[in-house]
Amino acid sequence: MIGIFDSGVGGMTVARAIEQLCPEYPLTYFGDIARTPYGSKSPGTIKKYAINNTRFLLEQGAELIVIACNSAASTALSTLKNSYSVPILDVINPAVNQAAVISKNGKIGVIGTRATIKSGIYEQGISRQRAQYQVFSQPCPLLVPLVEEGWLKKRETKMILRRYLHPLRSRQIDTLVLGCTHYPLLKPLIVPRIGRRVHLIDSSVEVAHAVLSFLNTHTDLAEKLYNPGKESRFFVSDLTETAGHLAAHIFGRPITLEKVNV
Amino acid sequence: MIGIFDSGVGGMTVARAIEQLCPEYPLTYFGDIARTPYGSKSPGTIKKYAINNTRFLLEQGAELIVIACNSAASTALSTLKNSYSVPILDVINPAVNQAAVISKNGKIGVIGTRATIKSGIYEQGISRQRAQYQVFSQPCPLLVPLVEEGWLKKRETKMILRRYLHPLRSRQIDTLVLGCTHYPLLKPLIVPRIGRRVHLIDSSVEVAHAVLSFLNTHTDLAEKLYNPGKESRFFVSDLTETAGHLAAHIFGRPITLEKVNV
After folding, report:
1. In principle, which of A110, A184, B80, B191 could form an S-S bond with A177, CB 3.0–4.6 Å?
2. Nearest to B150 by CA among B261, B245, B214
3. What is the mean pLDDT of residues A186-213?
4. Which CATH architecture has domain B2-90+205-259?
5. What is the pLDDT of residue B111?
6. Averaged pLDDT for residues A51-68
7. What's the CATH code, domain B93-203?
8. Which residues in chain B touch residue A114, judged by CB atoms under 8 angstroms apart?
9. Whole-prediction pTM value?
C-alpha cells in the first residue's frame, strides 16, 4: 500500500486529501507523536527520524512513500531518495510547481515551521522554475501548537496570524504556500488576514494530486496498490487524547490510532 | 556530581537556581531537546524518556539526580525511585511543601503542562499535608512554546496568560504554584494578571533549596560531590539555535551545549 509519514497528526490532512482523490488505494499512516514536533529540531535529528519512519513503513509493506511533513521533506528528502529504491513523493515539490504556475505578479509567500523555512527549499524550488520570481518566507512556529490545542477560532490565534502574515501582505504577494500540514486547518483565519485576492496553495491538496498523477503514469505499481476493500491504518509512536481529537476533526469521523514502538 | 535532567532547556532555570545556592557543587545537565516537549505526551512515553535520561546521567557519574521537569517528575518519579538506588530529588515535592506552608486561605492554584496537571500530583501532595485545602489546577499548554519563542513581553502572551489565569483568579487563590520550569520566565507577566497579593511558588527555587538541605543533611555524599574548581556541563540530545539563546537568557551568560546521542 501507500505509506505516509508525518511528525504527528498534522500529516493526516495529506492522508485525508489522498483518500478523497484516490479512495481505492489503502494507506498506512505513521505519525511520530512521541518525538513531535520536528519543525523546531535540527536537520540531523529530523533526518534520523525520517529514516526511522520510512523503515517502519517499508516493514509494513509500503511500496510508495509520501512524506507528509514539510519539515521532514525539506531536510530529509534527498537522504531518503539516496537510501531507498522505492518511489518517494513529498509534500513540497507539488506545492512549488503549483505556486510557480498560479502566481501572476511573481511574488510568492511561504509560511512554515522554523526547520522548513530555514532549509530554503521553497525558494530554491520556485527559483529553479521561475528565476525572476521573488519568494518571501516567514517562519510561524506558534501555529502548530495553536492548531494542536484546537484554538482554531480564538482571538489570540488571529492576532498571532496577523503578526506573522503582515510582512508578507506588505510585500503584495499574490500567492501564499501553506508550507505545513497543520495550516490548512487555519485557512478560514488566514484568508481575511492575507487578503482574499491571494491564492492559497494547500500543500496537502497538491501532494494528493501528485499521488494521483503518479499512479496514473505508473500503472504496474498502481495495479499492485489498488485494493478498494482494504481499510487504511493509522499508526502512532505515542497515543494522546489531543491526537485522537485532531485526527477525528481532520477526517470528520473517529480514527483508530494504533500505538507502535519504533 | 549532581545530575539534572529536563525535557529541554526549561530545566536550566533549576540548574541556575542550584548553581546560585550551591556554587561549589558542579552539575551535569541533560536536556532532551530531540524529544521535547514532554508535557503533551503520554505517561508511558514520558517514563521511557525519564529512564533513558537517568541512565545517561548515571553513566556520566551522577550520584544525586534532580528531575528538573515537572512533566517527568509527575509521571516518572516513583518508577525512577524503584529502579535506581541513587537519591532522586524532584521539582514537585519542594513546591508542594512550600505551598502548604505559605497559603493562608487554603486555596492554591497550580499551572502546568497537560501531563503534569492530568497526573494530579500537586493536588495529591497538598491534600496529603492539608486535607482541607482546595487546589485548583489549570493546564497551560501554550506557555512553553511561547517561552521557547522568546515571546516574553508580547501582547498575545499576555492575553493567553489572562485566559489561563482567569479561572484561578476567580477562585480567589492566595498561592500559585508555577508547575513548569519554563514559567518563572513569565513571572513579570503572571504577577499583574493573577493579582499582586498572590504568592508565586517557583518550583525551580524550591528544588534548589531542597538540594541544599539534602546536602546539609547527607554530609558524606556532600563531601564527595564538593568540587568548587569543576565547571558544570550541559548536554543536549539535539542542538538548535533557539536552545542556545534560551540557555544564555536563563544563565545571563553564554552556555556551551554539548550534543550527545542517547
Report:
1. A110
2. B245
3. 96
4. 3-Layer(aba) Sandwich (3.40)
5. 98
6. 98
7. 3.40.50.1860
8. 242
9. 0.93
